[in-house]
Write the structure tokens for this entry.
Amino acid sequence: MAFEIERKFLVRNESWRAKTSGTIAIRQAYLATDGNASVRLRIRDNKDATLSIKSRPATLRRLELEYPVPVLDAEAMIGLRHGAVIEKIRHLVPWGGLTFEVDVFAGANEGLVIAEIELRDERQEVTLPDWIGHEITGQPQYYNSALVLRPYKSWPQQPVLTDRSA
């Protein structure tokens, strides 16, 4: 059984871009987002796909099961989705022996930039880089399963997420 231990943050500026070690284009859709679990389909770089089941609610530590599926099957299953398709570019940013995943959203969630860091345990100390902003771990509106139903662009007042002058 696999568990995900992850912290999520808003990104305050773009200084992380110079440290990026790789990028992945991601499209994902949710087949279910209610009850005790969410069921997600993810296609990476149009080359591979996975079906994931994550326990709810979204907290620091939760159950995550992931299974590979053929890309053609994933494309067909996207038609069964609940809500919109999430589109984002994931940037891998090494930091302090770990790797932040900085998601730059597109489409209905354009303007949203979130950094995630996976931890080995809940008490693991992490020194945060200066480009990390407010922590949003456990705030449901920022999770992809919520963004498919209430996209970032539809929020009445969008928080300032980046400082482009940095």
Observations:
- Confidence is low (pLDDT under 50) at residues 162-166.
- The two ends are 42 Å apart (CA to CA).
